[in-house]
Structures are given as structure tokens and as C-alpha cells.
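Bench notes, afternoon.
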Amino acid sequence: MKSNANLIDEFCTTLWLEEGLAKATLQAYRSDLQQMGSWLEEKFNESMLLASSEHIRNRVHDLPELKPSSLNRKLSSYKRFYLWLNTTKQREDNPCEQIHSAKRGLRIPKTLSEQQMLDLLAAPDVSHAAGQRDKAMLEFMYASGLRVSELVNMPLRAVDLNAGAVKVLGKGNKERLVPMGEPARLAIQLYLQRARGELLTGKISDFLFVTHLGKPMTRQGFWKNVKRLALMAGINSPISPHVLRHAFATHLLNHGADLRVVQLLLGHADIATTQIYTHVAKEHLHTLLNQRHPRSKSR
């Protein structure tokens, strides 16, 4: 009988070969399953291959401290793993078939107002190379709605300034073409003409955005820059690079963009994922109504 480690390795390799999942996603699957395997051995002296529905229910009930979203992510790992075992004939049944996901409330994404976004875009000091880079990254992310991983891993060749568009390689190696506005195009053009070469100091890089060490900007590095610039802009609410993606989608919908268009620009496989932004847009409309309508209670 195959060991837990061998089964997990085989499963993750299959996901990588068939779906091209990102390294971080594969690592999350691996971590969830390794924890599950260790828990089964310690608590029941049982292997993952022979685990029953009752074992898996006990595992889920053993994690009450997790948020529903975190619990469901782990449960999703278990479900995919046992579905794979079933479809590859390594098990005759699927012990996760009757196990339901945890109920979760509607999670409204955190975003910034349009004025806060303008203040943040104005925060970088463009008199030096790092500031020009930071300005270009903020403008680019707000103009295109990129994921932070897509932003920092953006190859130089993917950006077409003449067309004002960028070719994005998203989740599952799915490619999409995203247009950018004139402010973002000009900010990137300035960065390429002046700052990038100064930051590289003679080094060569295939990545669009680089640090003063001549290396690609990292997710953590960009996160620190966003938090620093937000404080400079007087934004005291919690902020992360993903908030800029939320702002991109929310502000588009506030100005009448079609939900399907926003879905394509964000690279969402399912429009249900995009629909969460409509709740933020509705709140904006209610606020405007209360502030501007002559018969609203606030007037």
C-alpha cells in the first residue's frame, strides 16, 4: 500500500501537469494533506488511503477555530484528493461525497474610495528612481486590476506601450489581454526611460519591475511599499496590494462598467466571484442617494 507521502506527491504532480496550478496553490494542497495525514496517524493510526467519511468529519470538527473560508479551503483539498483517488481507481468510494462546506457570511471586499486612491497614487516621490518605479506599479495595478503575483512576475516583453495593453498570464496559465489607461502608460514609460536602468546598475533582467539590487520586486517588498505610501497619503485603514485590485473592480462598476467586462479584466473563471463587487457598488449608490436625493432622510 502506498504511503501518505507518496500519495500526496503523486496527487500534487497530477495537479501540476494537468492544471498548471501555481506553486503557492500546490503548496497549500500539500500542506493541508500532510497535516491531515499526520492527524490520521496520530489519532487513529490510519492511512489516508483507508480513511472513512467519519474520520474526515472528525478532522473537520477538530478545526473549530478556523474561519469558514480557511476551513472550506482545507475541505476543498480533502475533496479533490479523494475524488482523485476515486477516479484513478485507488479507492472504490469517495469518503468526502456527503461532506458539505461550512456556511459563510457574505464577505465584502475591502476597498478604497476614489479620493483615497488618488491620494495614494500621488504619494510616491518621483524625483528618484525607486519613487518612479513605485508610481508606475501603483498606476499599473489600479489601471489593470492585476493580482500582486501577476504584477511582480510581469515580464518586460508582456507590456505594449504603443497599444496601451498588457498580456497577463493568470491562474492556471490562462492568458488575458488587459488595456491600461494613459496615466499608467505614461508612468511605466517614465519608469522604463529613466528609473529601471538606474535600479539595474548594469544588470540584466527579464522582469518589468526591479529593485535597487537589480532583482525582481517581490510580493513582500511591494506590500511594504504600499503600506508605507498609504501612511504618507493619510490612509489609516488596513491596506494591502489586493485592496488596489478591489478598488479597480469597484470603481469600474460604480461608473457603469458591465459585470462581464470586469470579470474578463480580473481573470475570474466564474462570474460569481466577480459579483461580490456589486455589493460594494450598491453601497456606493445608497450613499449617493442619501446624500443627493431631495427626499432622503439625511437632507
